[in-house]
Amino acid sequence: MTDSQHYDEREARKAFVRNRQRLVFSIASVVLVVAMVLALLVFYGVIGKSRKADQTKPNFGVTAPCLPDGFDGKRIDPSQIHVRTLNGTDSSGLARAVQDELENRGYATTAVADYPSDTVVSRTTIYFGANAIPEAYTLGSLFTDAALQMDDRQDKLIDVVLGTSFYDLKDSTDPSISDDSPLGNISGCVAAASMQNLPQAIQHDAVN
Q1: Where would a tag sit more exposed on the chain, N or C end, judged by fewer CB atoms within 10 A?
Q2: In this protein, which residues make up the domain named LytR/CpsA/Psr regulator C-terminal (predicted)?
């Protein structure tokens, strides 16, 4: 092998290394730019803006029914509120723990189960029908993260679907949920009779 051939091979190897370094540097630069753009979008609220906006809206952006006309604002006795708790998260045992606490507070608990969905639920949601609006308001006042969602059920069972937003119930001594703390309409609520295209209720045994 001649010196010229050795030289050509060395130059070829050097060129290969330089090209590979340039490629790695280019990829790293692109990744860095994308990361910076995403960070700026999050910082200025472009990404996640809708979710943040919903958190500041009454009932987390879900249209709620108003309390019935003539309702006196008195909280419903927990023993008259029938609750089923469904776990919409991947935290095993969460529904049972919440159900047990509701039972300790006097609620008529029925069953616990996993929420029938392939995806994890983000926002805790309380599902109820038009015949259990004061009951849903009473139950909902225990939560800091739950949206009230009326569906098409006609009975009085209330479903609590726990989402990843759930942390804990309000303390039982919280004055906002005391017996003498009246229920009030959720801001922006509408008359239940005017609500159309209600979601279909989760399958359940009717409770009247």
Answers
A1: N
A2: 80-166
